[in-house]
Specification:
Elements (H helix, E strand, L loop, with lengths): L1 H16 L8 E2 L5 H11 L12 H4 L15 E3 L1 H4 L23 H10 L3 H7 L13 E8 L2 E8 L2 E4 L2 E2 L11 H13 L10 H9 L2 E6 L7 H10 L3 E5 L22 E11 L2 E9 L23 H7 L7 E5 H7 L2 E6 L14 E9 L21 E5 L13 E9 L15 E7 L14 H4 L6 E2 L8 E8 L2 E9 L6 E9 L3 E5 L5 E2 L13 H11 L7 H13 L11 H11 L9 H20 L8 E2 L3 H7 L2 E2 L2 H11 L5 E2 L1 H21 L11 H9 L1
Parallel strand pairs: 1-4
Antiparallel strand pairs: 2-5, 3-4, 5-6, 7-12, 8-9, 8-12, 9-10, 10-11, 13-20, 14-19, 14-21, 15-18, 15-20, 16-17, 16-19, 22-24, 23-25
Helix pairs in contact: 5-8, 14-15, 15-19
């Protein structure tokens, strides 16, 4: 309950004051840089981060764990202990400030290197005003995009050192520390340094910009890709490339021409040069190692440069020994396997004019038993997945492919993938399908499409693959209309949290596709004359001398009646359920049920029994948790996926089956909550306000 309350509070803050936006970053781990620095300056103590301590756990859990040979002799030291005059940034951040250490995070370093090409992006990730002199307190901070929100991450400046040298990323100059501290901040949000090992530069690109990334297979490169690269660099996009490997033994293997396989490079420039009257397209590539450069055509000392005019040659700065090199675009396509591009405005990569996407993002959860429905191959559970509504109204301006339609870029990203590594949890295999909203539901996003819709029609589009990556992202061109996006894991019953991002070239309405929580409960007006004489006789027999039924007596009655039925399963009604029943139906405040109150209960249970049986599709005597939404709707309760998740967690068993007594308990509880809310919402505003005493009183009732 406390976790659910915290999540509701976080989402409310995001809606009300833009918490988590670029302009209002959230303090990671609730640590305020300004407050902590002020406290350290006042006390004269250097900051020591209790949430990411200078200890083994922060290094790693396996290859960099406590007993690993790689961590023997590792110490944590501050830059002031490593050199006489440490600097945060010297003469601006440069690509040469980033040299890889003993950690396989070249993908991250390639992204950091590209970050230095755009002062505006760099200034957001690496806030200004930090140094080892003015107001130095051993604390620094950085801002990262994490699954839909910006977070401000503080770190102390104790860095892992071995044999007197920084163990991980370092500056070529040796006395500059912004890149090492940024790497530490990224390790902190990922739970350890080891969690950074292996990845795609796309991940770093997106976490530094909040942008959307597209990936190109260079064996199938579009004919305009060089133009796309130039335009992307001009617009401040971050670009990375790599060479695929066929086995783990090829990881970081160096080719004959000094290219490293399975290694993340960054693309830092694209230029055309004139040679003997013809134009040659060149790309500048950077190796985050700061060394090991391409030795083929157009490398630093190759003879191809002899045909270039001195002015052009000087402009391209082609001979620096810094891990950065030029190569022809044709060689690039031949030697590299993949190119990743991340930009805040990816529509400008294929259009003639710059523009910005219309953007929306949504958080979601795949909960086992409620919303983890798997892909369309699993019809019994598929419709339980979260659903998101998109309304596309206007076609693109000047479509680059000559076809009218509405461009949408959809990215599905699973959350906390690196933090989960230490627990041995693998990435889910994820993807999504897009369906057209049928006519009878158009104009509405407050519905949840069920099997009667989704299982009777084909998807109009889907992600190219279900794949175990952090993010699946695809570009679509759809006719104007209303659509529902259904993100899922490939198999059902796989838990996970995700963020769905929707970019559209033109303005578009988008929202979660969820029911409004509501209830339509009809209570028959029953008088003494409406009660069957035989029922009265039975009531007198079971109620005793006081002609009323207590919670204990009700428990015995219900258990006895249900135990005689072979078509439903039960492990007995709990006393708490029986107390809730009495609380709901007790009109005179006696805490017991009289004749008319018991008659209403009996009528209600008979109705709920028929609903239960109709949704027990396999005749097992229990109801699958994935069938509960439809059963609740038939009983008059309209609930959304968040409420369904809480219901399943409370009332389903270990195999996610709901027996009859739990079904009754759920319905009674829902009806009681709705009744309490409507009693307090006297002005029918759809909201109530309680003080602590009122809240505790009602919660215990």
């Amino acid at each position: 309950m406390a976790i659910a309350a915290a999540e509701l509070a976080r989402r409310k803050a995001r809606e009300e004051d833009g918490s988590g936006s670029r302009a209002n970053a959230v303090n990671f781990n609730q640590q305020s840089f300004e407050s902590l620095r002020a406290e350290c300056l006042q006390t004269g103590a250097l900051f020591c981060d209790p949430t990411f301590p200078a200890a083994w756990d922060s290094l790693g859990y396996n290859q960099l764990g406590r007993y690993s040979s790689k961590t023997i002799g590792v110490e944590w030291r501050r830059p002031t202990e490593l050199c006489s005059n440490p600097q945060f940034i010297v003469d601006g951040a440069k690509r040469t400030d980033i040299c890889q250490g003993a950690l396989g995070d070249c993908w991250l370093l390639a992204a950091i290197a590209s970050l230095t090409l755009d002062p505006d992006i760099l200034g957001r990730v690496v806030p200004a005003g930090q140094s080892f002199s003015s107001s130095y307190a051993g604390i620094f901070h950085f801002q990262l995009w994490r699954y839909g929100e910006w977070v401000d991450v503080v770190v102390d400046d104790r860095l892992p050192v071995k044999d007197g040298k920084l163990l991980f990323v370092h500056s070529a100059q040796g006395g500059e520390f912004w890149s090492a501290l940024l790497e530490k901040a990224y390790a902190k949000v990922s739970s350890s340094y080891e969690a950074l090992s292996g990845g795609s530069s796309i991940e770093g690109f997106e976490d530094f910009t909040g942008g959307i990334a597209e990936s190109f297979n260079l064996q199938e490169a579009p004919p305009t890709l060089f133009h796309i690269i130039r335009k992307a660099l001009k617009l401040g996009s971050l670009l990375g490339c790599s060479i695929d490997i066929s086995s783990s033994s090829e990881t970081e293997a160096i080719t004959r021409q000094k290219l490293v396989k399975g290694h993340a490079y960054s693309v830092t420039a694209a230029q055309q040069v004139h040679v003997s009257g013809s134009v040659v397209e060149l790309l500048r590539i950077r190796n985050p190692w700061g060394q090991v450069e391409w030795t083929g055509a157009w490398s630093d000392s190759s003879r191809e440069w002899d045909g270039v005019e001195p002015e052009e040659k000087k402009k391209l700065d082609h001979a620096a020994d810094d891990g950065e090199f030029w190569m022809s675009y044709t060689d690039f396509l031949r030697q590299f396997s993949r190119l990743d591009i991340c930009n805040l405005s990816p529509d400008t990569l294929t259009g003639d004019t710059a523009g910005r996407w219309n953007y929306a993002d949504f958080e979601g959860v795949w909960r086992v038993g409620s919303t983890a429905g798997g892909c369309r191959n699993y019809p019994a559970t598929f419709c339980s997945n979260p659903q998101f509504f998109i309304q596309l109204k206007d076609v693109d301006d000047d479509p680059h492919d000559g076809e009218d339609g509405c461009t949408a870029l959809i990215g599905l990203m699973q959350k906390d993938t690196r933090r989960e590594r230490r627990f041995g949890r693998d990435l889910n295999t994820i993807g999504f399908a897009i369906y057209e909203v049928p006519d009878e539901y158009k104009g509405r996003s407050n519905v949840h499409l069920g099997p009667d819709v989704l299982l009777r029609r084909a998807a109009v589009a889907r992600s190219r693959n279900f794949i175990n990556l952090r993010e699946v992202c695809d570009r679509f061109k759809l006719p104007p209309g209303e659509y529902v996006v259904i993100p899922s894991t490939f198999e059902p019953h796989r838990k996970g949290s995700f963020i769905l991002r929707v970019f559209t070239e033109k303005q578009a309405a988008s929202s979660p596709m969820e029911e409004d929580v509501d209830a339509d409960i009809s209570e028959p007006d029953v008088g003494q004359n409406d009660v069957d004489p035989h029922f009265k006789h039975l009531f007198v027999q079971i109620s005793g001398n006081d002609s009323e039924i207590s919670a204990h007596e009700l428990q015995q009655i219900l258990d006895k009646v249900v135990s005689q039925r072979s078509d439903v399963k039960t492990d007995g009604f709990s006393l708490q359920t029986c107390r809730s029943i009495i609380s709901l139906l007790d009109v005179d405040g006696s805490s017991k049920l009289g004749l008319l109150e018991f008659h209403r209960l009996w009528t209600k249970i008979q109705k709920y029994l028929e609903i239960f049986k109709s949704h027990d599709s396999d005749g097992s005597g229990t109801m699958s948790s994935h069938e509960i939404r439809a059963a609740l709707a038939e009983a008059g309760f309209q609930v959304n996926s968040a409420v369904i998740g809480q219901i399943v967690g409370r009332y389903a068993d270990a195999s996610f089956a709901i027996d009859f007594d739990c079904f009754i308990g759920c319905l009674i509880r829902l009806e009681l909550l709705v009744k309490m809310f409507r009693t307090l919402d006297q002005k029918n505003q759809g909201r109530i306000q309680l003080d602590l005493q009122q809240w505790v009183y009602l919660a215990i009732s």
